[in-house]
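queue> pop job 88
queue> type: inverse folding (structure -> sequence)
queue> payload:
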């Protein structure tokens, strides 16, 4: 497998530094060969975030970009969980995406595709996963999306 960081760079993206927990939880935990990544938001490497509600202040393309940013933050946490040893990476098992959206907005799956597509672009077939895409009334810090994940590791 190509080094995921090289693939991210080739896509013209930046892997951000992993974000610390902002409350009483861990950014990730490991149980056996599964690593669970806590919810990650659409925060750039410089610390800016995509905020707003789909169907109100955010367009679908911006929502997809928000999901891609959340996925980059997930990958940053996976790197820490693996101590930087990508040879231990197994696969992306599951994503659960929460979309800050109005009650009549029904395109949550299209938004979370921003994260799903990135996982496949970066990890190939090992990036294919099961997932949920759920609309919610609000998210922490006004984020447009929040995504958590489960990975298999060796």
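queue> result:
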């Amino acid at each position: 497998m190509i080094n995921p960081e090289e693939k991210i760079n080739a896509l013209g993206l930046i892997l951000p530094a992993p974000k610390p927990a902002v409350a009483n939880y861990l950014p990730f935990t490991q149980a056996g060969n599964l690593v669970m990544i806590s919810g990650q938001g659409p925060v750039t490497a410089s610390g800016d975030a995509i905020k707003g509600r789909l169907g109100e202040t955010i367009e679908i393309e911006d929502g997809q970009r928000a999901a891609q940013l959340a996925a980059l933050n997930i990958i940053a946490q996976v790197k820490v969980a693996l101590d930087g040893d990508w040879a231990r990476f197994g696969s992306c098992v599951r994503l659960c995406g929460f979309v800050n959206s109005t009650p009549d907005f029904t395109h949550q799956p299209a938004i979370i595709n921003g994260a799903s597509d990135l996982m496949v672009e970066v990890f190939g077939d090992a990036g294919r996963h099961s997932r949920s895409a759920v609309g919610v009334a609000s998210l922490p810090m006004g984020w447009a999306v929040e995504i958590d994940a489960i990975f298999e590791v060796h």
